[in-house]
Amino acid sequence: MDKNIPRYNVQLYIYDLSRGMARSLSPIMLGKQLDGIWHTAIVAYGDEFFFGGEGISSCSPGGTMLGPPDTVVELGETEVTEEIFMDYLSSLGETTYRGDRYRLFEHNCNTFTNEVAQFLTGRTIPSYITDLPSEVLSTPFGQILRPILDSIHIAPPGGNVINGGRNL
């Protein structure tokens, strides 16, 4: 390993969108325990990056209206430069992660952070986060709610859209 190559810390910010209510209500509504409804973001190069209904956005860490994260996971370090990373995000924002491609269950903030984490560190985000949609949809109530939930586009206020938003 070359000691002259700069390394950058990469973190996963985890937010519970239910603010603890999922833990209380999920056994009643779904018949199984969920610890939270997770929104995630990648923090690297001094900014927080996330995907929502407006596309890829960034802000200062903890700078959305969600406030500080509930949990921070250290994903490791990357040798990817900020310039290469921003080019990568720009490419994703024009294709795979345009705002109009957002789908609450199949293509959301967590699929974005999982892909970006792998690009930067080779590591995935915790499976309890990526498995959440299938856990909800495996219940009868989840299937009833699916048509309503499919129409929801989550975009935490407070971020700056990187790719110009919904590119149709």
Descriptive account of the structure:
The protein has helices at 21-29, 82-94, 109-121, 127-130, 132-137, 140-150, and strands at residues 8-16, 38-44, 47-52, 55-59, 71-78, 160-161. The protein has 168 residues and is an alpha+beta fold. The chain has six helices and six strands, in the order E-H-E-E-E-E-H-H-H-H-H-E. A six-stranded antiparallel sheet has the order 5-1-2-3-4-6, with helices on one face.
Write the layout of secondary structure elements.
Elements lengths: L7 E9 L4 H9 L8 E7 L2 E6 L2 E5 L11 E8 L3 H13 L14 H13 L5 H4 L1 H6 L2 H11 L9 E2 L7
Antiparallel strand pairs: 1-2, 1-5, 2-3, 3-4, 4-6
* N-to-C span: 43 Å
With strands numbered from the N-terminus, the spatial order across the biggest sheet is 5-1-2-3-4-6
Instruction: Please give the count of helices.
Output: 6
The radius of gyration is 16 Å
Proportion of residues in helical segments: 25-40%
Largest sheet: 6 strands, antiparallel
SSE series? EHEEEEHHHHHE
Q: Which stretches are poorly predicted, pLDDT < 50 over at least 5 residues?
A: 164-168
Structural class: alpha+beta
Q: What percentage of amino acids are in beta strands? A: 15-25%
Please, what is the average pLDDT? 87
